[in-house]
Specification:
By secondary structure, the chain is an all-alpha fold. The protein is built from 13 helices and no strands.
């Protein structure tokens, strides 16, 4: 920012000494002079144009910047929006509530359809009880995995002695045996479950399949024992010897370790079959449709809870926005007031700059007179005596925007005084609107449950 320069700098810039020397040689100033000399006018022109003019330009730029900054405040608009909280809340949550309502209706229809399918299934199959099954499949598969691993390791120990690869070869053979047992057990559980079907043809077929699988399982378990015994005799022909021995004497196993393998495999087969059977209801298909219905019931309950949570989250979002507006209003008011004070300070500084410029002009005149007196051995007559600023000709700062903003400040002060009350009313409006929405959700859920037969009146 351009400021009032020091006297020495002004003397150097104006070359006052050279001017004095030139004027003295020309016989200026005369004692009876009544008009300004060229040097006097040059000094005044320098101060007015070069100093005050530039200071005015910079001060005016500062004032304009403050006016522009104050013009960007949105206090009135934000206060009006705070008063129109009803419309803001409706606009904010209207579409969201419509989507939530649509989702609840869709869930209710899906649940109703599934419940109808369940009732039809129960009616067709003569079922009057609820499905009995294990809720957690993780525990179910964990037990099966434990049985598979335990049987594999036990059988691997017995088969490792006769294998060319030792324990590794025995492990792979035992693992294959366990997989076969697992497959037989799964099919046996499937066949056993279908034995409880209401369709007699399907029941007879399932019973025949179960007996076949049971015979196959028993034969396979005994074959494992014969194979273990044959490994002790000849590892290369163990399979042929085991098949021949199984065909001739199924129970003719002589080796104790082989009988242990038979018992381990048999127990594993029974446990796996039992586990596959009890994990679901004994009636085929009953568990699957019941799981779907209960899953949809959970989804229906979760949808209602999610709707309530969504409304609460939305209320918090709206309250946060209102709080942000309230903080913005106060911050802008403080900045607006500070900007007006700064503009007034700039105006005062400009008046002080004019006084300083007049003082600088006086200093330049005195220096001219002093330097001239030393050269002429007499006082420079009348030099500078008539030089004074004509205030009406000095550029004034444009404070039109400042005056308008001072009037705005009075209105803003009234708005800020009412801000606490308006903000409290806005928060109350949000809470009341959200409570109404939650109540409407509860009423909607009751109506949907009655309309779709999800509960009794």
């Amino acid at each position: 920012m351009t400021s009032i320069p020091a006297t020495k700098a002004a003397i150097s810039a104006l070359k006052v000494e050279q001017r004095v020397e030139r004027d003295v040689k020309a016989g200026i100033p005369e004692i009876d002079r009544r008009s300004h000399t060229e040097s006097e006018e040059s000094l005044r022109s320098y101060v007015v144009r070069e100093i005050i003019g530039r200071v005015h330009e910079n001060r005016q730029a500062e004032l304009d910047a403050q006016v522009e900054a104050r013009s960007e405040v949105e206090i009135r608009q934000l206060c009006q929006e705070l008063k129109n909280t009803d419309a803001f809340v409706e606009k904010k949550i209207g579409s969201r509530v419509a989507n939530l309502v649509s989702g609840l209706k869709r869930r209710a229809q899906e649940l109703s359809a599934l419940r109808m399918d369940l009732e039809i299934f129960k009616h067709r199959n003569g079922l009057t009880r609820e499905a009995i099954y294990r809720e957690s499949k993780i525990l179910h598969y964990s037990v099966i995995f434990f049985i598979v691993i335990l049987e594999t390791f036990l059988n691997a120990f017995f088969l490792s002695k006769g294998s060319d690869l030792g324990l590794v070869g025995g492990f792979f053979q035992a693992f294959i045996i366990t997989l076969v047992n697992l497959g037989i057990a799964a099919f046996m559980a499937f066949a056993l479950r279908n034995c409880f079907h209401s369709n007699y043809i399907r029941k007879v077929g399932a019973l025949a399949l179960f007996l076949t699988l049971l015979t196959t399982g028993v034969t396979f378990v005994l074959g494992v024992g014969h194979y273990r015994e044959a490994l002790e005799l000849d590892a290369f022909t163990a399979s042929q010897l085991a098949m021949a021995s199984l065909w001739e004497k199924p129970l003719g196993i002589q080796d104790f370790n082989s009988w242990i393998m038979v018992v381990v495999s048999g127990i594993a087969l029974i446990l796996l079959t039992t586990k596959f059977f009890v994990v679901e209801d004994r009636y085929p298909g009953y568990t699957a449709i019941t799981r779907r219905v209960r899953g949809m019931q959970d989804a229906w309950a979760a949808a209602y809870e999610d709707a309530i949570d969504n409304v609460n989250e939305l209320a918090e979002e709206v309250q946060d926005e209102l709080a942000e507006r309230e903080r913005t209003i106060r911050a802008q008011f403080i900045q607006f007031k500070a900007s007006i004070e700064r503009s007034e300070e700039i105006h005062r500084n400009y008046q002080e700059d004019i006084i300083k410029a007049q003082g600088l002009l006086d200093e330049l005149i005195r220096y001219y007179q002093s330097y001239s007196a030393r050269m002429m051995n007499r006082r420079a007559a009348y030099f500078g005596e008539l030089l004074r600023f004509e205030l009406d000709k000095i550029p004034q700062l444009n404070t039109t925007g400042l005056e308008q903003h001072k009037r705005d400040l009075v209105a803003f002060e009234l708005l800020v005084e009412e801000l606490d009350e308006e903000y409290s009313a806005a928060i109350t409006t949000v809470n009341e609107r959200c409570e109404k929405v939650q109540a409407s959700f509860a009423a909607l859920v009751d109506r949907l449950e009655l309309e779709h037969g999800l509960r009794r009146a």
